[in-house]
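Pipeline run #58 for the internal structure catalog. This entry was flagged by the ingest filter as a single-chain record with no existing model, so it goes straight to prediction. Upstream metadata was stripped on purpose; only the residue string is passed forward. Reviewer on rotation: M.T. Logging verbosity set to normal.
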Amino acid sequence: MINHTTYPELEVGTVPANEMSIRPQSNFVNILVLRELESHAVFTTNGEDADIATVALDSETGTEGYAPGLMFMRKQTGSDRRFGKALQRDLGVFADDEDECTMQVNEMCQDCVECILYGSAASSDEGSDVSITSRVMYDTAYTLRDASVVIDEKFQNAPGDDFAKSAEATIREPDFFEPGTLFPSVVTLHDATPAELAFVLGITAKNKRYGATTSRLGRVNNRILGVYAGREEGPANLELTRQTINRLVTDSDTTHDSVTDVVMSETLSASRAASHVRTAFENAIEIDSLALQRVPEGTVDELLELASGDELGEILTQQREQSREFLAQAE
C-alpha cells in the first residue's frame, strides 16, 4: 500500500486517501519532465499549421526573440487520459459485469480513479449531475529551439495506380515537428493522494504517443527528471524553457556562444538539456523561495516500479473506494 506510513516523505504535498476533500487545499506535487520526440509528430489546432509563439529571451546584448513551437496542454492531457483509462482496463480495475470507462464527453463513468483525478463533465445518466474538476494540471510546453529548425512542411503527390498518368497537384500535409525536438514540461497534481501520484507517474513514464495520427507518428520519450512536493506550484513551463536556453549558452561542454546559437541549433543533446532543465527548476525554487522540496530519487524510483507492475491494480482498487467517498461529498 502507498500511504504516508510507508512513504512519510510524501506527507508534504499529498493528502491521505481517507482525508480527501472536495474543498481545495494547498497540496501540490510537481513532476518535472523533458519530452523528447523520437519520431515526427503533429501538434496542431487547425489540422494543418503548427502552433507557434513569439518569446523574449534575455541575453548579454539585451533582449532577443525566438519563435518556439508549442505543445498545447490538451495535446498532453488527452493522450495521458486515454492511456490512463486503458491502463485501468489492463489491470482489471473494472469488474466483468461493469461498463468500462470511456473518453466520450458526458459518458465517463465518474466511478474510477482516472475520472475522479483527471475530472469529467456531468454524466448523461439520469440523476448524475455532478461535474468533477481535474486535479492534474498541465501547461503549454515550448520547444527549446526555434520553430524554423524543428518544424518541417511536407508535401506529397496523390497519384492513381496507372503506369502512365498526367501531372497531379501536390497535397500539403500538416506541419511536422522533427525527431529530437525537446519540450521542458511540468505536470502538477493538486491535493492528490500518494496512490494517485503513483498512477500519474506510471502514465507519464509509460505513455509514448502524443499528437495526431499516433498510429504512425508522435513517438515521445518522457524523461522524468524529478518530483517536487510542497504547498505551491513550481516554475511555469515558459520560464523553465527560458532559463534552460540561457544555461545552454554558458555550458562549457557545448559550442553555443549566444542565445541565437542555441535556438537555431540543428540539434541539442537531450542529456545536457535534461541536466539544465533540472538545475533551472531547482534554482527557480530557491530564487523565488517556493515552498517546495525534492522527493528523494529512491522514493520516485520505488513509485515508478510499483506503477509499472501488476501491483498497481490492487493500489488503484483500494484508491477507488476512497475516490468514491470523495465524490459522495458533492451529493
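catalog note: Residues 8-153+172-328 form one domain.
catalog note: The radius of gyration is 22 Å.
status: ready for reviewer M.T.
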